[in-house]
Amino acid sequence: MKKISITKLSLACLFAAVVFIQSCKVGQKYSQPELNLPENYRGDTLAYFGDTTSISKTTWKQFFHDPTLKDLIDSALSNNFDMKTALLNIEIANKDLRRNKLDYLPQVDMTIASANKQWRSKEFGSGPSSKWYERHGTKASENMFTYLSQFGTEIGFNWEIDIWGKIANSKDQLLAQYLNTREAKNAIQTQIVSDVAKGYFNLLMLDAKIEVAKRNVQLNDSTLQMIKLQYEAGEITSLAIQQTESQRLIAASLVPELEREIILQENALRVLTGQMPDSIKRGTSFEHLFAENKDISLGSPLEIIRNRPDIRTAEYDLIAANAAANIQQAMRYPSLTLGGNLGVNAMLPKNWFSIPGALLGGITGELTAPIFKNKTLKTNWEVAKIEREKSELALQQTVVEAVSEVSGAVITVDKLREQLEFARLRVENSAKAVRNANLLFRSGYATYLEVITAQGNALNSDLALVELRQEHLESYVDLYRALGGGWR
Question: Reduced to 3 DSSP states, what percent helix, strand and coil does the chain have, rounded to the nearest 5?
Fold first, then answer.
């Protein structure tokens, strides 16, 4: 009875010690650092950006209106190789996270069958095993006698108690890594949406440029015919024909160049959709790709913390670094390990599973602490704390760059809108100049050089308007992505 009481008391003391030690968690609990966000973005003017729903919360299917473009984006998100790789990375991280839950349980191993038979000779310094030869009814030899004979099967377990929260911090670290892979996927999606939209806009603008070039070629053909008639009448020299022909060739040479760019852009878009090179279908109009004239709201800078995948990724990196530092700190403290085994063991194979004669069992408990590790553990902890500080700086830098990117995108949208108004006026003025130059040339009040100059200006004005139109469309996409839109 006394032995039983002592055993119960020892177990009770051990249990109490485990509960007490587990309450002594070490490490620093994560808290988001101060990011010093401004109240508003520089360049955010309520007169232009109305107080409506923030575009960062708008899904890409709602942001874009062109059905052809939406089909193209949907195909890219389904078939893009980077997106497929990101989904596989999420699956890997999820499996690691789910496995971490089992770290709280003991590890169990089973030795299905083991055989250990050793021989020694007289110079070994020890006699043969007792009983083995007695059971065989023989006399042990002096050389190569059986020294050890064992046959066994057993199950063993090893269980490290999570005293200082190493497993809990590992869970935090793995969870941060898992969420990080999800944000990486979101970042890839926003980039794909942006790249596909810009590529599609570029195709539409290239088509528009070809129309401008072909229209200018026809205009130059008409002018050339008119100048040839005047040359035949002896009113002008052949130089006028040559210069007019040069102007026509400038416009004509743009067509094959633009056709080449169209094919290259189509191939690039097909790569984004994970498909072989081929033509890309276009919509019927590029005037209503999305509601660019609708009042939008940028929201507060605080919203991009929740919306932008790169900021969320940087914060998950900080969370993982904080957990890693806690783990390294816990490595410096004592660890409690419980172990045990249960099985059968016999000297002779025929007694292998003799119950209860061959039964064996044991239980162990170890409380170990590092004493001198050449300063390795302390250095690892200090390095982990420095890595945490680096991650915090990286988060703050990402936030500053994101706010600056939004501000730049807002100003770009606004100023390109102003430039477009001037570009449209320039096109209208150039078209009037061409008409007036032709009329004056037929009436003899203008030279062919004035006609050629007017047509060259008209060509450049039309091309500049198309390019500005493309830049304006792309600036909206850049603003949408800068605010964290596109992954919903």
Answer: 65, 10, 25
